[in-house]
């Protein structure tokens, strides 16, 4: 079991006065088997008169607020206490062995299963694919092999073929461009993985959250050095959702903290907002995932 | 009485048919209603009908009925086209049609309720899950915004056409923000006014009960005290294709016309930003498509919507009609499943069938479609796709092959439809009554108790082209009035009855945007007039000097021409340009007519007309007539000669007179409310600035007496004060007496002191908010300006400080101009909101891109 304090601080600076702001946050960790959010707190400056909490379509917790005083700087800090205990969920060794072929067959024949998963099998606002994209995954998914193994191998392939390069892409960079350049960040790898896996006919969703990063050996961890993270979750028939982290080539465990599920990033951006101003804006994000004893 | 002539008219029409036609019944006999119409048409005579048609065209233009054409270079609007011959349906048939569309509306309402709820239709396999989850009209954030659980679809419009079997078919379901009901109303008003003879002996149902029902529904929706309900008619703005209709219906129904940026969500409540501050909004009738309604939760790049709107709906603080999310059922695939959904919900068959539609996501249908591709129309199920409708019969073998491949790759994204077959109906084309294809849209409003009321009529669109159906308004179709003719002799006269409290809605306020536009209507109008007026003065002086070898030296001409360039802000213009000064006409013509030149009259009038159009619900019919005249007199049409030296004075005169008339009609007809105050304020600010500019540039330098005498005369003319001056002074024209008159004469409306006093008074009457007693910044600036004019010593001002200059005069006039400019700045910051909506994140991938 691991316990964490998460601090996610977003600061907007505006060179000209902002008259108003409307915002929707998706920052609160989910409560689910293996993860409990013990406390969640939002500090917003300037303070809104009200923050409205809501469960969205996918069961994620969102917070809505609006500002009507003029301001030139806005800071939103989300602080949560979470404990993770993946082992309590089940035997981690008993991996599902359903093959790709069997999984496909079940998804085609079990109507109610398919109905519940369909939106994670179809294209979504930021994830579409064509033959070229799907071809990238072809060699990893073989009919007679277990789907779980194939998905894992595929994430490994992304990890080994792609370079993690922070400033190459924006959230709007198309999957094809990422595929051609063989570089990107966690959102890009997740979107690419989702496109390929859906293209192969399997349900997969986008996971938004955090990862505890470890400092280089012998060095102290720097404050604000973490970042929000993204990975994927594949549905394995007869078993359930299984997470994979293509950015780090690992199966997420206690160091991954889950905030939200969606079809892709567009369903779950941590913070979105509409500003009433005529100027530009500068954004700074600081994330700390602090392990607690 | 069937005369021989009427029989002939019918025969000649019948002979021109080459398809099934509205006029004939299944046995090929002429239907009684059409017979009656043909008799009336014959009585009127074709020649008279053509004359009336011209009157209709003129009337529609005069009433400002337009349809904006997208992608035209300067946001051009096209006059609405109305065929004088109506579309007729007998009451008996209409009753059947009514039952069909009413059933359709109830069904769609239930579908929405189910799919934004339990989704039993999917769970029980009545429809495939793709119809929801692959549907770009299914908006997940809308799951919990529907507050009225009894009615998800308050408004509905059905597009219909008559099939070859004589039955009406539903071609399309329109749920988002159906357009056309306002045009239908205007068509009726114009037809009944200009062609009353056509309806002789017929009983035609009224359209008003539908609008009455709509108003009742809106009032019933507003949950809290209805007396104070504030209803907004939300438009995307003047650039939208049917903006005319938005303004028209808003004023007909008595709602405030507003754009997204006029509204603001605070404390989960929607407010209207108005001249009096924020005002709570209870109901929004929207003409914005679903995905544009709220950039925070729906389409992020939307600048048309209201961020936070969905949240306000969730909290139950505002009702939106129709609620966003209803485009779910506009998805073409639904047409294929309507019969089974109808049986599922009602245990009965559809009364009115839809056009035959196959969804390709099922194997059997896919096979059928692929095998019959060459006689079907292929569409994407999602309406907002850039994929155009494809007519299989127009494709080559190779193209068919590729289309098959495309469909097979993602079959659930495609539907196939049978080509819609339409009936023809008599239309007046090029002076002949000939058959043309037509289709009908009718409108329904929920009664809030599970039923719907349909408009007894609708909007018929017909094709101007023979044997082809081109009815899109964008592409230039014709419209028709639609008559539901009852054989019943009792005239069913239902007046719009409103609860007594609806009439006394004190909350109606002026949205800030409209306020700003009105202010600029005043400013642009005066700016253009000031330039035209002074141009006229200058031309007279130039002509006099040329033709009559002037008594004075031409020194004053240079000064006047340079002052003209300053006034019109078309600098450098005449300033120190010997060539232009020697032959001023070329430059004057350019400043008058060159629309792309800043400061030109043409560009000023264009800005004026834009501002007028942006607040078109403010104007009554008299004003539209004048605006039409102004439009004609400034923009040359193919009938008018190009502007040249000899016709310029005449063109100037007529434009000036029309604009003067505009101001006159405004002052005679507009209620003395805030709208009027703002327009007047804009006008006064511009007028003071213009007059001061001329005085300053004429007298900043000291000139010979005879030159100054000419200038004094020009300035007095510019102030409309020459007559008064002559009556008072009779003697020669002097600077001191002139300054005394144009600056300080209290009895004259064009004197500076008078205009400033009026400006100050107007400002005081505008809303002041909490600090009601105090002068606001704009008033302070106006008071200072007024005071400095009142304190002016004209003797000293006229007296040159040094040999060449009148520094004191310049200083005074510049100071006053600055203060008046400040008034405008203060007004803008106090009353008109200027912040722009921006967002900070992602752009969804376009449908067809990867």
UniProtKB/TrEMBL annotation, chain A:
Keywords attached to this Swiss-Prot or TrEMBL record, sorted alphabetically, are:
Hydrolase, Protease
State whether keyword Nucleus applies. no
Question: Taking every annotated instance into account, which residue ranges of this chain make up the domain Transglutaminase-like?
Answer: 178-248
Question: Which terms in the Gene Ontology molecular function aspect does this entry carry?
Answer: peptidase activity
Cross-referenced Pfam families: Bact_transglu_N, Transglut_core
Q: Does the keyword Protease apply?
A: yes
Q: Which residues form a coiled coil?
A: none
Q: Which InterPro entries match?
A: Bac_transglu_N, Papain-like_cys_pep_sf, Transglutaminase-like
Tell me the leader sequence span.
Answer: none
> Which Gene Ontology terms describe the biological processes this protein takes part in?
proteolysis
Show the Gene3D superfamilies listed in the entry: 3.10.620.30
Task: Supply the PANTHER family for this chain.
Answer: BLR2979 PROTEIN, BLR5614 PROTEIN-RELATED
Protein name per Swiss-Prot or TrEMBL: Transglutaminase-like putative cysteine protease
Automatic annotation (TrEMBL), chain B:
Residue ranges occupied by any DUF403 domain in the UniProt entry: 510-832
Report the InterPro entries cross-referenced here.
Answer: ATP-dep_Glu-Cys_Ligase-2, CP_ATPgrasp_2, DUF403
Can you tell me which residues the record assigns to a coiled coil?
Answer: none
Please, which domain of life does this record's source organism belong to? Answer: Bacteria
Q: In this protein, which residues make up the domain named Circularly permuted ATP-grasp type?
A: 86-462
Question: What is a single Pfam family found in this protein's UniProt entry?
Answer: CP_ATPgrasp_2
Can you name this protein? Putative circularly permuted ATP-grasp superfamily protein
């Amino acid at each position: 079991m691991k316990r964490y304090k998460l601090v996610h601080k977003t600061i907007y600076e505006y060179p000209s006065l902002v008259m108003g702001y409307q915002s929707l946050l998706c920052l609160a960790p989910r409560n689910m088997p293996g993860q409990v959010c013990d406390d969640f707190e939002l500090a917003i400056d300037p303070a809104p008169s009200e923050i409205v909490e809501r469960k969205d379509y996918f069961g994620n917790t969102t917070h809505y607020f609006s500002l009507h005083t003029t301001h030139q700087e806005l800071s939103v800090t989300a602080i949560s206490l979470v404990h993770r205990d993946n082992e309590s969920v089940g035997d981690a060794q008993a991996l599902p062995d359903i093959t790709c072929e069997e999984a496909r067959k079940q998804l085609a024949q079990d109507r109610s299963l398919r109905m519940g998963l369909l939106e994670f099998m179809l294209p979504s606002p930021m994830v579409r694919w064509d033959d070229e994209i799907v071809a990238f995954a072809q060699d990893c998914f073989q009919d007679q092999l277990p789907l779980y193994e194939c998905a894992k191998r595929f994430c490994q392939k992304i990890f080994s073929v792609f370079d993690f390069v922070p400033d190459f892409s924006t959230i709007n960079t198309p999957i094809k461009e990422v595929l051609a350049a063989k570089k990107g960040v966690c959102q890009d790898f997740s979107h690419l993985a989702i496109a390929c896996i859906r293209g192969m006919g399997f349900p997969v969703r986008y996971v938004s959250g955090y990862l505890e990063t470890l400092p280089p050996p012998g060095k102290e961890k720097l404050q604000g050095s973490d970042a929000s993270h993204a990975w994927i979750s594949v549905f394995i028939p007869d078993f359930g959702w299984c997470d994979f982290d293509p950015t780090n080539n690992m199966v997420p465990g206690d160091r991954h903290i889950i905030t939200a599920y969606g079809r892709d990033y567009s369903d779950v951006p941590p913070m979105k907002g509409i500003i009433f101003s005529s100027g530009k804006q500068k954004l700074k994000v600081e994330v700390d995932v602090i392990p607690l004893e | 009485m069937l005369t021989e002539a009427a029989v002939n008219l019918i025969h000649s029409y019948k002979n021109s048919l080459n398809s099934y036609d509205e006029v004939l019944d299944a046995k090929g006999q002429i239907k009684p209603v059409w017979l009656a119409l043909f008799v009336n048409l014959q009585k009127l005579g074709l020649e008279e009908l053509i004359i009336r048609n011209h009157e209709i065209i003129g009337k529609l233009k005069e009433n400002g009925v337009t349809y904006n054409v997208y992608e035209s270079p300067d946001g051009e609007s096209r006059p609405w086209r109305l065929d004088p011959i109506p579309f007729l349906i007998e009451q008996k048939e209409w009753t059947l049609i009514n039952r069909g569309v009413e059933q359709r509306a109830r069904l769609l309402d239930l579908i929405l309720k189910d799919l934004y709820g339990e989704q039993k239709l999917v769970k029980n396999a009545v429809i495939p899950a793709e119809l929801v989850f692959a549907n770009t009209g299914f908006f997940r954030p809308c799951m919990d915004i529907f507050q009225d659980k009894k009615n998800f679809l308050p408004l509905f419009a059905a597009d219909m056409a008559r099939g070859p079997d004589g039955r009406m078919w539903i071609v399309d379901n329109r749920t988002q923000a159906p357009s056309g009901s306002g045009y239908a109303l205007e068509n009726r008003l114009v037809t009944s006014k200009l062609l009353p003879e056509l309806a002789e002996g017929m009983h035609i149902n009224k359209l008003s009960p539908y609008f009455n029902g709509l108003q009742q529904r809106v009032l019933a929706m507003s949950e809290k005290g209805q007396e104070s309900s504030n209803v907004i008619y939300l438009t995307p703005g003047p650039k939208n294709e049917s903006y005319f209709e938005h303004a028209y219906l808003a004023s007909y129904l008595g709602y405030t016309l507003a754009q997204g940026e006029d509204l603001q969500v605070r404390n989960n409540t929607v407010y209207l930003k108005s001249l009096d501050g924020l005002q709570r909004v209870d109901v929004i009738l929207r003409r914005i498509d679903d995905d544009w309604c709220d950039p925070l939760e729906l389409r992020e790049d939307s600048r048309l919507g209201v961020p936070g709107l969905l949240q306000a709906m969730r909290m139950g603080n505002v009702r939106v009609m129709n609620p966003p999310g209803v485009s779910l059922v506009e998805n073409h695939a639904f047409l294929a499943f309507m019969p089974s959904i109808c049986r599922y919900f009602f245990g009965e068959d559809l009364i009115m069938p839809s056009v035959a539609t196959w969804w390709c996501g099922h194997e059997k249908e896919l096979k059928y479609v692929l095998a019959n591709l060459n006689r079907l129309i292929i569409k994407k199920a999602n309406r907002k796709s850039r994929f155009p409708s494809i007519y299989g019969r127009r494709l080559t073998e190779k193209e068919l092959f590729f289309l098959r491949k495309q469909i097979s790759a993602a079959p659930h994204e495609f539907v196939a439809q049978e080509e819609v077959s339409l009936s023809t109906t008599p239309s007046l084309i090029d002076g002949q009554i000939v058959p043309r294809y037509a289709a009908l849209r009718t409108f329904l409003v929920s009664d809030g108790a599970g039923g719907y009321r349909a408009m007894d009529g609708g909007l018929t669109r017909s094709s101007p082209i023979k044997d082809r159906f081109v009815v899109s308004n964008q592409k230039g179709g014709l419209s028709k009035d639609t008559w539901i003719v009852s054989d019943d002799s009792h005239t069913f006269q239902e007046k719009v009855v409103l609860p007594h409290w609806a009439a006394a809605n004190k909350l109606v306020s002026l949205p800030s945007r409209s306020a700003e536009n009105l202010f600029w209507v005043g400013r642009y109008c005066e700016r253009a007039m000031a330039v035209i007026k002074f141009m006229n003065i200058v031309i007279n002086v130039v002509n006099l000097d040329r033709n009559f070898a002037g008594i004075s030296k031409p020194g004053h001409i240079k000064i006047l021409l340079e002052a003209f360039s300053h006034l019109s802000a078309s600098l450098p213009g005449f300033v120190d340009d010997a060539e232009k000064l020697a032959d001023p006409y070329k430059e004057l013509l350019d400043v008058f007519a060159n629309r792309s030149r800043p400061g030109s009259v043409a560009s000023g009038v264009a800005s004026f007309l834009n501002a007028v159009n942006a607040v078109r619900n403010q104007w009554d019919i008299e004003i539209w007539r004048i605006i039409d005249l102004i439009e004609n007199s400034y923009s040359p049409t193919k009938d008018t000669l190009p502007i040249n030296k000899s016709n310029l004075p005449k063109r100037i005169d007529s434009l000036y007179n029309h604009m003067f008339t505009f101001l006159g009609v405004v002052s005679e007809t507009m209620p003395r409310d805030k709208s009027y105050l703002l327009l007047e304020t804009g006008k006064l600010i511009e007028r003071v600035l213009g007059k001061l500019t001329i005085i300053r540039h004429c007298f900043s330098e000291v000139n010979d007496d005879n030159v100054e005498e000419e200038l004094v005369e020009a300035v007095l003319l510019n102030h409309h004060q020459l007559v008064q001056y002559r009556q008072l002074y009779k003697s020669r024209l002097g600077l001191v007496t002139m300054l005394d008159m144009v600056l300080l004469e209290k009895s004259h409306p064009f004197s500076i002191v008078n205009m400033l006093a009026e400006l100050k008074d107007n400002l005081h009457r505008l809303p002041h908010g909490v600090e009601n007693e105090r002068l606001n910044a704009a008033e302070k600036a106006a008071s200072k300006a007024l005071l400095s004019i009142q304190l002016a010593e004209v003797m000293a001002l006229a007296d040159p400080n040094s040999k060449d200059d009148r520094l004191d005069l310049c200083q005074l006039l510049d100071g006053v101009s600055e203060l008046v400019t400040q008034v405008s700045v203060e007004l803008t910051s106090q009353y008109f909101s200027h912040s722009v909506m921006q967002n900070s994140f992602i752009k969804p991938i376009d449908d067809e891109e990867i």
